[in-house]
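Input sequence (323 aa), recorded before submission:
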Amino acid sequence: MTVPGDLLVAVFDLPVPVWVTGDTLGTHAESGLGPVRFQVHTPVRASDGRVSAPPNLGLPLDHAIVTAEPWAHLFAAFTGDDSAIALCRIAITARRSDHSAKGAAAIRWGGLEYELAHRIDYWFDQLRGWIEIITGQDLDPEHRVYDAQAPGHGLHTWNPDLADFQPPGLLTMSTPHILPLPAEAWRSVLAEVEQGNEPPLEELLSRDARAAHRRGHYRRAIIDAATAADIVLNRLVENSVETLPSALQLEVEDPKKIRTFGRNITIADQAEIQLAVPVHRLRKLNDARNDAVHHGHAPSASKVAKIVQISIDLLASHGPYPR
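Predicted structure, token format:
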């Protein structure tokens, strides 16, 4: 069997494995970026006991590149779903005839293959943004956080008994709690990327705050968390303008008036806007933000985690994707 000349077939190793539920395997869905449109095919569960096998495209996919790496893999993690698996590779198919009408201005260089290669990394970056805000998975390929680390890597200490320098030989390991992406959400995020839709800014900032905390960037974590909460609270205040006292209405409706996060907290408190997060917790987040911005202060990792959680709780109840 040969691949039809009109069909482009590609295998893409995901820069970071994506945890999905079992019903995501063996599916195909439309996606793309810019002028490039394609179908994404996920692997299937193998009948011979292997965790996964290449997608069934009805094509000769027994080439070395197809079998060199696992398509999906089980890693140590708490998922709450026995069917969950980490997606490592996908297959991509595209019809050249679907792009012929777009002309040379849309498909550059040597054709569809080159355009796909030019855009695939950015496509994954857009895709991971949606997955991260839905599941909380950390999928940043540029700044990986590993579950197994060797403290003091590169350090060798003198051992008088052996008359030699020896590495410390330490290893720290953790088992993460993972929320896998369901099949319906997988299809949905592929479609969002194809349509050029980005996640809401406050959700991306919340994601960035969580990622910064994991990497020890505590000031950035506080600032991003507070900015995400500020966007949400500002929207709540503006949506409640008709119920505010007249003096507060004039302030909120004044296009020249820029309200700070602290001022929005005060307005919400005075107007008794119903919030899922108590005002005193929001003030704590705002104080931490001011200390981080104006004084360069950042508390310990555990304290920053509690501060970031305030923003997460506000978005969970009042953000664009309640959960």
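Checked by second reader. Residues 193 and 216 are 30 Å apart (CA to CA).
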